[in-house]
């Protein structure tokens, strides 16, 4: 299955085995929907958008299980822990909140950014999260002690942060046209240079490749070891 979101407030769940088949249209958001995430078991979908809410849906039926008024601003970033127990949300109000996916209640006090939060991900340890913001800052948080552990920097807004599935490394992608590959000691390992803003990026399951997309509509595949492009698809402006 694939979930997509758009500016019409609709979330669509697609059947990838049957071309152009929509399994469910999820209606409920007011305004743009900015992020969607499946739970690890695939039974629920979380979505967030310009209305400041986070919605949790039953994937099979398309029924809304809960709508949380999570933030006072647009919620651009979501992630779910690998065990499916927690959800983290980040907003243009400059706040990160963590939620229980069993009770749908907030967990602990909010984590403050100096600017709007644009990207989030859990680390493999689950006790830490990475967040990126509009001022180019990336924070590594200890969610138990509710404090920042480390700070990393880009020159412009950070659109994506992702941890490697196999190593203690993570990537950050920014409007400055660069993907940085870091280790968790704040050491910069590689720089993948693009000609345009980098909107999203992800590691391959074996951690040897990175795929990225840009504001020019291009999709690039990179080798992690040497930091060189392996393949490119030139598309239309996004």
Automatic annotation (TrEMBL):
WD repeats lie at residues 1-24, 26-67, 68-109, 110-151, 151-183, 191-232. CDD domains: WD40. PROSITE patterns: WD_REPEATS_1 (PS00678), WD_REPEATS_2 (PS50082), WD_REPEATS_REGION (PS50294). This is WD40 repeat-like protein. SMART domains: WD40. Keywords: Repeat, WD repeat. Pfam families: WD40. It comes from the Eukaryota.
